Structure formats: structure tokens, C-alpha cells
Amino acid sequence: MGHTSYQMIEKVYAALDEKQEKSSEKIDAMFKNKM
């Protein structure tokens, strides 16, 4: 949980702005894989 995670979260939110519904599902899967 360092600076890299914050950068990834920023990229995630940027993707959400472009494609909310489709990206949110992929992001959910990504976070579950990291957990």
C-alpha cells in the first residue's frame, strides 16, 4: 500500500470517467485478484 497503489487508483478513476459500467466490473476483478 505505497505510492504505486495510489497511482493505480488514479488510473482506475480515470478509466471510470471514460467507461463507468464496463470499467467498474474489470476494476472489481482486479482488486479481488490483488486481495
Report the total helices.
Answer: 2
Shape estimate:
flat
Domain module tally: 1
Distance from N terminus to C terminus (CA atoms, Å) equals 11 Å
Cα radius of gyration in angstroms: 10 Å
Helix content: over 70%
**Count of DSSP E strands?**
0
Mean pLDDT: 76
Largest sheet: none
What this model shows, in words?
With 35 residues, the protein is mainly α. It has one domain (3-34). Helices cover 89% and strands 0% of the residues. α1 runs antiparallel to α2. The chain is flat, with a radius of gyration of 10 Å. The termini are close together.
Present the secondary structure layout.
Layout: H1 3-18, H2 20-34
What is the gist of this entry?
With 35 residues, the chain is mainly alpha-helical. Helices cover 89% and strands 0% of the residues.
